[in-house]
């Protein structure tokens, strides 16, 4: 149940080590999510920080300055700011004394250095607090020894320790003694009311570098002698390289060499067949040049011939195939309560609707890129990736190297949205660097990035509900998807538990078009489908659409079904808050509202979209968004995430579509692929529920309900329901009927 | 390869590149001014925005041969230390999420506010609409432009 607070227990000795720094000061290495090896020792100088046993470090200098080497990939979700805030609060220093650096990543002994699933803060909360509190206790213990007093009588504030008689010592003055002490087994965490940093606004820790254009991102990384690689990949899914002629490319300015890769990738695929799905088995032609532009230009001059390795697929076929799956009977049942067949047979009324969505590319603003330098003694990898340990391990395996030879450094990342989970580009650049033995960076053009994606799959939902005696008695959700189906928790989201006869069935079609996680996987479309459906169901039943949702939640309260993921109490509270904050039902004339609520990534969200009519078409002006994600670490950053998630959800529901013809995407750049811009972006008003639940996800949960809230508002404004995304493809539905304008 | 003389952020640079090389890549790969970002290469996203003689332009779509004798300003040249009112507004509002598009946003906003110091809501949205932000930090970009206009007037 989402109400449960995690009660993790740690042995401090097992996950922390300390050492004196050679230049003075204390270094605390900690492993957030698993124990350190018994022989692990924290390094004694910063040059040799190694992340084999510790995935993050705190340095406290003799002048009291605190540096936190933040462990998780920063893709714009804000953890480089918020995770160190948690440590700093328990350490009891002032936030402006803290400097944050991105931790380097190595390969061996850590488990969750991933940006994905909105889980960094939820899973890091307890260990990050323990880490800060343990460091604080060691400093207090050192001061207490010096004063000859009981540590429990000492207090701390903003990096200063005060003795019972009022003497003070700064943290920096006792760090060298603290480094000699044992790591305490038991430490006391702060009471929530005593937080001084958590819950306060902190700016993005990289703000000064961002606004002045300092090198931060993978694309900005450069070392002496580095060359650039542009890769010619099969233009269509299903094709492989037959032959190529690079004579012209080789003669172009700055071109150093033209090679092919693929052999090592295929060897890796032989050992791990799953990798084929992200990397492909074709040979690829690689142009190596002195500059990015020269590499990109010469890549276009490579004449390649392709042959069909497997069927070249098109969106039109997928459309028919997915409909066929929904109409058919080849489903896996993920959850079944009661007897839907019987309940539908006995129902007074039935509503059935089908919802359809296309493939979507991630379109991170920073195109995929990665650096590698391979020598006989090491493999140095640098760049933006959401799953550093996974990729470093795969590189070691592909190149036949020891994991300890791999050093992977993360840069700041120009967006992730799931795309950088896959790291196919890391494997590519490693194979290139292993071949040419020069420091090299592979850079995708925008067209490469969009055409060689790992997409949100096309997906269809069919939802059927039965009503008897004014109650919803049956609910049947069917999913037909390309390549993969919803993950196992989703069937236990709302309305699971609320409807007696309930079933979730899924079916899939295996395509050669690569697909994967895209911000809020599955729920990014499912929430729109279900929330549109509930709206229509309420209309059919002639009941209040919000009250219907609240009524259903009552049945879940006190449930003993521990599979149920959401909390009906917390959901009811966000719904009521959204009603109040948005002025639901009290909107002025000419404003049409749509409601949606959703649970995912352990957070509960409700949204109200306000739509007005401009030039005969509905326009989203404002979205009120209420979020329960437990304790909010950094409200300033959290609001930014929530606002962005809502607008991202609306943008893709309105405009997002990647269609395929003969295995090739029909748009590969922003001239034909439309992202939402400032003019279409509504004002988003975000409210967080105030409570003391442990923090949960925020990078994703505000996105899923946004499309549903907008679709429901469009219905209120135009009388039309839209069952397919993107909405902009149906201009006839985005019009107010003329007689209404005239009337 | 021909040699071109470029004036970037007040400094004169001599670069040897082929004539069709976009300004973007001269800045990034030859002059190590990497604050100007690559996003699309076809002037559709705005991440590569710089000023040429004070006008906001897409550096991916201008070739080096078109720029001799012009004054080019990049994000690095907007101020020595991030003190330009537009940069300060971006900081105060805490605009960025991933941050990648923001130097282009700042350059578009700066040139716009030079021309129109007291913009309306509609004018801000029209001026900024061509700069895409995949994180959709549009509400904050808007507020920062508004705040910068107040700072500058």
Keywords:
heterodimer; A: about 750 residues; alpha+beta; Aldehyde Oxidoreductase, domain 4; 3 domains; seven-stranded mixed sheet; 20 helices; 28 strands; disordered N terminus; B: about 150 residues; Ubiquitin-like (UB roll); DNA polymerase, domain 1; 2 domains; 5 strands; about 15% strand; globular
Verbal overview:
- The complex is a heterodimer of chains A (743) and B (153).
- Chain A contains 20 helices and 28 strands.
- With 743 residues, chain A is an alpha+beta fold.
- Chain A has a seven-stranded mixed beta sheet with strand order 11-12-9-19-16-17-18, with helices on both faces. In chain A, strands 1-2-3-4-5 form a five-stranded mixed beta sheet. Chain A has a five-stranded mixed beta sheet with strand order 14-22-21-20-15, with helices on both faces.
- In chain A, helix 3 (120-147) packs across helix 4, helix 7 crosses helix 12 and helix 12 packs parallel to helix 13.
- The two termini of chain A are 51 Å apart.
- Mean pLDDT of chain A is 92; it is low at 1-10 and 106-114.
- Chain B is built from six helices and five strands.
- In chain B, a hairpin with a 2-residue loop joins strand 3 and strand 4 (55-58).
- Classes of the chains: A alpha+beta (743), B alpha+beta (153).
- The interface between A and B is large, with 64 and 61 residues.
């Amino acid at each position: 149940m989402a109400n449960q607070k995690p009660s993790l227990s740690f042995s401090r000795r097992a996950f922390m080590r300390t050492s004196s720094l050679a230049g003075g000061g204390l270094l605390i290495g900690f492993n957030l999510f698993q124990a350190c090896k018994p022989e692990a020792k924290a390094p004694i100088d910063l040059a040799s920080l190694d992340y084999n046993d510790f995935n993050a470090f705190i340095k406290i200098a003799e002048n009291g300055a605190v540096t936190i080497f933040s462990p998780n990939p920063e893709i714009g979700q804000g953890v480089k700011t918020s995770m160190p805030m948690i440590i700093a609060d328990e350490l009891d220093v002032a936030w402006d004394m803290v400097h944050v650096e991105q931790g380097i990543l190595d390969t061996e002994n850590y488990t969750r250095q991933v940006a994905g699933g909105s889980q960094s803060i939820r899973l890091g909360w307890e260990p990050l607090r323990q880490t800060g509190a343990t460091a604080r206790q060691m400093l207090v213990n050192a001061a207490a020894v010096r004063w000859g007093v009981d540590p429990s009588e000492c207090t701390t504030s903003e990096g200063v320790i005060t003795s019972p008689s009022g003497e003070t010592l700064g943290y920096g003055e006792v760090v060298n003694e603290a480094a000699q002490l044992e790591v305490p087994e038991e430490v006391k965490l702060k009471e929530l009311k005593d937080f001084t940093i958590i819950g306060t606004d902190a700016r993005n820790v990289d703000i000064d570098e961002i606004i002045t254009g300092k090198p931060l991102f993978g694309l900005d990384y450069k070392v002496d002698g580095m060359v650039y690689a542009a890769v010619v990949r099969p233009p269509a899914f299903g094709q492989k390289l037959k032959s190529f002629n690079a004579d012209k490319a080789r003669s172009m300015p700055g071109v150093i060499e033209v090679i092919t890769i693929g052999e090592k990738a295929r060897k890796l695929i032989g050992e791990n067949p799953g990798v084929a799905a992200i990397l492909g088995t074709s040979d690829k032609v690689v142009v190596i040049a002195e500059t990015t532009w020269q590499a990109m230009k010469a890549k276009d001059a490579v004449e390649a011939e392709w042959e069909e390795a497997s069927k070249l697929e098109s969106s039109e076929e997928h459309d028919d195939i997915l409909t066929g799956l929904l109409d058919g009977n080849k489903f896996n049942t993920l959850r079944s309560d009661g007897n839907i067949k019987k309940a539908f047979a006995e129902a007074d009324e039935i509503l059935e609707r089908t919802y359809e969505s296309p493939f979507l590319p991630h379109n991170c603003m920073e195109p995929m890129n990665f650096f590698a330098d391979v020598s006989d003694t090491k493999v140095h990898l640098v760049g933006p990736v959401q799953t550093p340990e996974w990729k470093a391990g795969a590189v070691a395996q592909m190149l036949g190297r020891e994991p300890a030879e791999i050093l992977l450094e993360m840069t700041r990342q120009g967006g992730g949205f799931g795309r950088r989970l896959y790291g196919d580009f890391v494997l590519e650049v490693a194979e290139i660097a292993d071949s040419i033995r020069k420091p090299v960076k592979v850079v995708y053009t925008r067209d490469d990035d969009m055409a060689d994606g790992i997409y949100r799959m096309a997906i269809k939902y069919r939802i059927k509900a039965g009503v008897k005696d004014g109650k919803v008695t049956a609910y049947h959700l069917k999913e037909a998807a390309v390549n993969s189906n919803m993950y196992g928790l989703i069937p236990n989201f709302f309305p699971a538990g609320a409807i007696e006869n309930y079933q979730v069935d899924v079916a899939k079609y295996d395509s050669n078009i690569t697909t994967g996680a895209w911000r809020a996987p599955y729920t990014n479309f499912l929430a729109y489908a279900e929330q549109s459906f509930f709206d229509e169901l309420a209309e059919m039943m002639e009941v209040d659409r919000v009250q219907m949702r609240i009524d259903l939640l009552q049945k879940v309260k006190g449930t003993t079904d521990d599979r149920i993921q959401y909390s009906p109490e917390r959901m009811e509270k966000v719904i009521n808050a959204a009603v109040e904050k948005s002025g639901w039902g009290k909107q002025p004339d000419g404003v049409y509202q749509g409601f949606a609520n959703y649970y995912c990534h352990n957070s509960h969200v409700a949204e109200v979209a306000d739509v007005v009519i401009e030039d005969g078409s509905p326009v989203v002006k404002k979205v009120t968004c209420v979020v329960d994600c437990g304790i909010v670490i950094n409200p300033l950053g959290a609001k930014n995430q929530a606002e962005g998630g809502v607008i991202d959800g609306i943008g893709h529901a309105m405009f997002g579509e990647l269609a395929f013809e003969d295995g090739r995407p029909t748009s590969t750049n922003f001239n034909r692929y439309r992202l939402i811009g400032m003019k279409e972006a509504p004002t988003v008003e975000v409210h967080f529920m105030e409570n003391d639940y442990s923090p949960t996800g925020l990078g994703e949960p505000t996105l899923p309900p946004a499309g549903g809230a907008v679709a429901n508002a469009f219905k209120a404004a135009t009388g039309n329901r839209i069952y397919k995304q993107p909405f902009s493809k149906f201009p006839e539905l985005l019009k107010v009927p003329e007689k209404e304008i005239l009337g | 390869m021909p040699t071109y003389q470029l004036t970037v952020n007040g400094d004169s640079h001599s670069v040897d590149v082929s004539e069709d090389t976009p300004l973007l890549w001269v800045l990034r790969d030859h002059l190590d001014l990497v604050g100007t970002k690559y996003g699309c290469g076809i002037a559709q996203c705005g991440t590569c925005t710089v000023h040429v003689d004070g006008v906001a332009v897409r550096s991916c779509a201008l070739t080096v041969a078109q720029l001799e004798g012009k004054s080019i300003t990049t994000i690095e040249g907007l101020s020595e230390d991030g003190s330009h009112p537009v940069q300060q507004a971006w900081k105060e509002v805490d605009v960025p999420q991933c941050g990648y598009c923001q130097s282009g946003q700042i350059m578009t906003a700066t040139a716009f506010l030079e021309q129109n110091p007291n913009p309306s809501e509609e004018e801000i949205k029209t001026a900024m609409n061509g700069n895409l932000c995949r994180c959709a930090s549009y509400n904050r970009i808007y507020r920062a432009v508004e705040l910068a206009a107040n700072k500058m007037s």
